[in-house]
Every structure is written in structure tokens, then in C-alpha cells.
């Protein structure tokens, strides 16, 4: 995320921690070395964006599958 000035390594670590079930406050407080010392506010922004993008791509895939099914019936 360029607007957060985040290194790829830190972004990957944050995604991994979130996927493992870690909370934003936990990550901000106890995993500073893995996140580049991101604040809890920036971590929340990152998580919101991650959730949005995951939802977006899931919806995109479902639409593409639906379009593919409709084409096969024509």
C-alpha cells in the first residue's frame, strides 16, 4: 500500500497475522518488528482495505462464473 509507505515484507506479515486471527490491537502492540512499527490506526486502514479487496475479488470471481454459465447455455 503505497499511501501507507509500507514495504512488501511488512504487508505480507500483516496479512499473515490477520489470517491467523490476530487482532489489530495485538499486532500494533506486540508485533511492531513484523509491521514496520505501524500504528493501530494505519493497521485498521490496512485491514479495511484488505477486507474490501478480498470481497471485491470474490464478487468478481462469482460474476465471471455466472457469465460463463450463461454463455454455455446459449
From TrEMBL:
Pfam families: Tex_N. Residues 2-67 form the Tex-like protein N-terminal domain. InterPro entries: Tex-like_HTH_dom_sf (IPR023319), Tex-like_N (IPR018974). Transmembrane segments: none annotated. It comes from the Bacteria. Gene3D superfamilies: RuvA domain 2-like. This is Tex-like N-terminal domain-containing protein. It comes from Citroniella saccharovorans.
Amino acid at each position: 500500500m503505497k499511501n501507507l509507505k509500507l514495504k512488501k515484507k511488512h504487508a505480507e506479515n500483516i496479512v499473515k497475522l490477520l489470517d491467523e486471527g490476530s487482532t489489530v490491537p495485538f499486532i500494533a502492540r506486540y508485533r511492531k518488528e513484523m509491521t514496520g512499527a505501524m500504528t493501530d490506526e494505519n493497521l485498521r486502514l490496512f485491514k479495511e482495505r484488505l477486507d474490501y479487496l478480498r470481497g471485491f475479488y470474490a464478487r468478481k470471481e462469482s460474476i465471471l462464473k455466472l457469465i460463463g454459465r450463461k454463455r454455455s447455455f446459449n
